[in-house]
Design a protein that fits this description.
Layout: H1 3-21, E1 27-31, E2 41-51, E3 54-63, E4 68-76, E5 82-83, E6 85-87, E7 93-100, E8 103-109, E9 116-123, E10 129-137, E11 143-152
Antiparallel strand pairs: 1-2, 1-11, 2-3, 3-4, 4-6, 5-7, 7-8, 8-9, 9-10, 10-11
């Protein structure tokens, strides 16, 4: 008589495991400047691609002063630090933990500097909006908080 209960539990466990393996943050996302609160910037696009156990993120755009933004990182969802390469990022390492298919938490740091940020990232139920809310300490040691709203392309 315990067989139906066991089968139901196994089905639930397999479904739950599969949902954690999904990553709804993948895709191309464009920053909505009008809905975001952040230091001045002209444009930003983020491409998130699946890699085994994590993600490759490439961010491009243009700063307020016309300087290019072009950085990337590849990180697993294991909470370990991974290097950020390129130009325009205030951080040079990132660690990521996946909470579920719609939520990640990143820790961003600058080696030898005071920049440090915690960045929960959440994808909306309809999959069209990605919201990153960063809070931490900027390069000058001053506390900051901003919200970035990206739209799926």
């Amino acid at each position: 008589m315990t067989l139906p209960l066991t089968n139901a539990f196994l089905t639930f466990a397999i479904t739950a495991a599969a949902s954690f393996a999904a990553d709804n943050t993948l895709g191309t996302w464009k920053l909505n400047l009008g809905r975001s609160t952040r230091a001045p910037i002209k444009s930003e696009t983020m491409v998130r691609e699946a890699v085994k156990g994590g993600v490759k993120v490439t961010t491009t755009g243009e700063g307020a002063n016309g300087d290019p933004i072009n950085f990337s990182y590849t990180a697993k969802y294991d909470g370990k630090e991974y290097p950020v390469i390129g130009i325009g990022a205030p951080f040079d390492s990132v660690s990521i933990k996946q909470i579920d298919s719609n939520k990640l938490i990143e820790e961003r740091k600058k080696t030898g500097g005071s920049f440090q940020a915690t960045v929960p990232t959440i994808v909306s139920i309809d999959g069209r909006t990605l919201t990153s809310t960063a809070s931490g300490t900027d390069a000058n040691g001053k506390a900051f908080s901003n919200t970035l709203i990206f739209e799926k392309q």
